[in-house]
Amino acid sequence: MRSLRYKLQFLILAGALALGGCLVSEEPVLDAANGRATPLGPGAYVMCPMGEDVDDCQLMDVSFDSSRLYTFVSEEEEPIEMRFRRIGRYGYGVQTREDDSYIYYYGAGNRDQFRLTMMLCADLPEDLRADLIESGDLEADDDDFETCMVKTRRGLTSSARAYHRGEIESEENITLEFNLVTETP
User: Fold this and answer.
1) Sign (positive/negative) of CA torsion 50, 55, 56, 62?
2) CA gap 22, 155 in Å, rounded
3) Among candidates 177, 178, 176, 174, which has minimal Cα distance to 23?
4) Which of 8, 89, 105, 168 has the fewest beta carbons under 10 Å from its own?
5) Which residues contact 7 (CB under 8 A, 6 or more apart)?
6) CA 120 to chain centre
7) Using a CB cutoff of 8 Å and minimum separation of 24, what contacts does 78-84 make?
8) In this structure, what are the phi and psi dihedrals at residue 87, rounded to the nearest 5 degrees?
């Protein structure tokens, strides 16, 4: 079974190559002051890629500290850290650290079931993307929007709200689903 880190790296690479670029930054946009949402409770979750075989699922231990920095741990893998910012009812902008950079997702759901979708720059509504680039909240490397650098919290939250409102048109999406493990009597 592949670890979450390898799945995320694979999904990021697949997204970047097949669907256009993701939203990234070199410095964190969310920190202990503005990334304090706690949509998931501490505990065990089963994480599965959407549209994939159920055999690809993995058990994850989820926790967060007093600054509300989440840690996702799977067997024999390094922990993955995430921060969440609420952008609407059951909707979140999500930041995860990957090596020396940060990658941004849209999260939706509650403590029982939560979906994490990679946000793709090319999939943002054209007028929103142009506004965010013009105002300096996003920065694009090229006209194909292979990768967009998130420069401000507004760049993240406005992009996540577009996903939350269903304004994204994409042939494919890269989504992971987390389901709380409940013990049976």
Assistant:
1) positive
2) 13
3) 174
4) 89
5) 49, 56, 58, 176
6) 10
7) 78/5, 80/4, 80/5, 80/8, 83/28, 83/30, 83/31, 83/35, 83/36, 84/30, 84/35, 84/36, 84/37, 84/38, 84/39
8) -125, -5
DSSP element (H, E) containing 156: helix 153-164
Q: What is the DSSP letter of 103?
A: E
57-76: average pLDDT:
93
Look at the block and give the residue holding tokens 């090229």: 142
Looking at residue 137, the DSSP 8-state letter turns out to be: S
Pick from 120, 153, 118, 175: nearest CA to 35: 153
Q: What angle do CA 128, 40, 54 make, to 5 degrees?
A: 90
121: its two tokens: 């720059």
Q: Within 10 Å of residue 26's Cβ, how many Cβ atoms?
A: 10
Name the burial class of residue 152, with classes exposed (0-12), middle (13-18) and buried (19+) by CB atoms within 10 angstroms of its CB.
Answer: middle
Res. 17: pLDDT tops 70: no
Instruction: Tell me the mean pLDDT in the region 72-98.
Output: 93
